[in-house]
């Protein structure tokens, strides 16, 4: 009996080792449904005016590549050493956007358009 048990154990071990070697000899299956890194978003901005009077509106337009239609964009301005979000937002349509911003205070306004961690370059508007 002991000899049969030893023979069975040896056969199982040999079969397991053979399966391991065979698996190692097989080419790796191509990965399906692997996540591809998302395209890096890019936002541009242009102002229709570079000088306005207080309480006038400027229109910001641009492109938003790498973002889907319907994604929300917000407008920020640089004030007191930090970027502050304004009450102006829009959504991406066919990789483009347009939004109006009312500038109430006199001074030089540095504006940018933002989506998550992506932002445009700044555009400057002087308000008198």
From TrEMBL:
Keyword Translocase in annotation: no
Keyword list, A-Z: Signal
InterPro entries recorded: Ig-like_dom_sf, Ig-like_fold
Region Disordered, residue ranges: 24-52
Biased composition (Low complexity): 24-38
Signal peptide: 1-24
Name by which UniProt lists this protein: Uncharacterized protein
Originating species: Streptomyces griseoviridis
């Amino acid at each position: 009996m002991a000899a049969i048990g030893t023979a069975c154990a040896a056969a199982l071990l040999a079969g397991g080792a053979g399966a391991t070697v065979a698996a190692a000899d097989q080419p790796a299956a191509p990965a399906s449904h692997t996540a591809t890194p998302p395209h890096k978003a890019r936002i541009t901005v242009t102002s229709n005016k570079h000088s306005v009077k207080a309480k006038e509106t400027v229109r910001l337009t641009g492109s938003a590549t790498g973002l889907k239609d319907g994604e929300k964009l917000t407008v920020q301005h640089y004030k007191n050493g930090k970027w502050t979000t304004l009450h102006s937002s829009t959504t991406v349509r066919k990789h483009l956007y347009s939004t109006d911003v009312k500038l109430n205070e006199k001074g030089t306004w540095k504006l940018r358009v933002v989506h998550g961690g992506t932002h445009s370059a700044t555009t400057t508007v002087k308000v008198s």
